[in-house]
Write a structure and sequence with these properties.
With 115 residues, this protein is mostly helical. It contains 4 helices and no strands. It has one domain (2-112).
Amino acid sequence: DNFRSFVESRIPADCSVKFINHGLGGACQMPTSDPMFEIVRSALTEEWQKEAVYAGCGGSIPIAGYFQELLGMDSLLTGFGKDNDNIHSPNEKYDFESFYRGIRSWIRVLYNSQA
């Protein structure tokens, strides 16, 4: 309500705003028994030369839940950021190394999943 009041108080007379509550995204989880889970884990381990870590988290990317609900598809979200990237902060950064290794990781996933 505070956000809505803030925005509405600043709308010029010749403009309008409409707020639509789309609700919350549903939770989802990809089964670790899915063959793609191992393909991705292996590709990440190869590229980064460290064992890939499974870290369940949720609620921040609703599209994954929609894919599962509407399309019947599982999603496996992977992150390539570093602890000091300060995601969504004023001094956010993202290293080129992470960018390129992320690309190479997904090349490995695509190559290994073509069987």
